[in-house]
């Protein structure tokens, strides 16, 4: 089985629609794909309707969190999307994305970059506007070579010259909310230092004690920029009793990574599905492949 547990669609900051994403996942030879848009479940229905036979969809979201001033992302799988407390928390975070992006545009203009809000809106389309859309505007203007190059202290990384804060969840509260909604939590790319400061391993231990289920170890940016992190994180996961996942963090054409570039062991996937009670993986019934 080939299992990719971290992807994004146009419901947040990917370039594939949810329907295109599942069709592309099937074409890439995946057996299981998780749709984990930022703080949103809006793409799930479209993905389910288009799900090809032979592909299973894991519904989820990537929750924006902050701990002691350090941003981190929490992957949440198979939770009840209608659980009201978690739904309110996701909405609160999403609602703050537009004013945050406007602030980043203003800061870039003050730095002499001729970016406009209209340009960022066009790039975001129907998605939940975020830093990657601002980053793509920088690519369009020739300021940086690619989206990843925009996530540096010079531009949009945490604490960078054009960075702006937004409402984010406390990760301990995020774990509690996801658990209450029957879901499973995995700390996304915990050692991806090129994005900004990372939390210490002592904090991961505290999150594990609070109910964190796993950490994402095999991740393209994390392994590219911190190859030494893999063995260290695996050892930490073993010490803490955490599951270890691997994923592409696919964003369509916004990044060069391919679907299934990194994958999760089937036994780990099985354990995730066993722990979840809020929702269940959706087997493909043969969606409209021509849409």
What report would you give on this structure?
This protein has 291 residues and is α/β, with parallel strands linked by helices. It is built from twelve helices and eight strands. The chain has helices at residues 18-27, 44-49, 84-95, 97-110, 117-124, 131-140, 147-150, 171-180, 201-209, 220-225, 229-240, 266-275; strands at residues 3-7, 32-35, 56-67, 70-77, 184-188, 214-218, 243-246, 282-283. Strands 1, 2, 3, 4, 5, 6, 7 and 8 form an eight-stranded mixed sheet that branches. Strand 5, helix 9 (201-209) and strand 6 (214-218) form a beta-alpha-beta unit. The mean pLDDT is 94.
Quick structural gist:
This protein has helices at 18-27, 44-49, 84-95, 97-110, 117-124, 131-140, 147-150, 171-180, 201-209, 220-225, 229-240, 266-275, and strands spanning 3-7, 32-35, 56-67, 70-77, 184-188, 214-218, 243-246, 282-283. By secondary structure, the chain is of the alpha/beta class.
Element layout with pairings:
Elements: E1 3-7, H1 18-27, E2 32-35, H2 44-49, E3 56-67, E4 70-77, H3 84-95, H4 97-110, H5 117-124, H6 131-140, H7 147-150, H8 171-180, E5 184-188, H9 201-209, E6 214-218, H10 220-225, H11 229-240, E7 243-246, H12 266-275, E8 282-283
Parallel strand pairs: 1-2, 2-3, 5-6, 6-7
Antiparallel strand pairs: 3-4, 3-8, 4-5
Helix pairs in contact: 5-6
Mean pLDDT, all residues? 94
The general outline is globular
How many strands, which pairing sense, and closed or not: the largest β-sheet?
Answer: 8 strands, mixed
Parts with pLDDT < 50 across at least 5 consecutive residues? none
Strand content: 15-25%
Q: Give the end-to-end Cα distance, rounded to a whole number of Å.
A: 26 Å
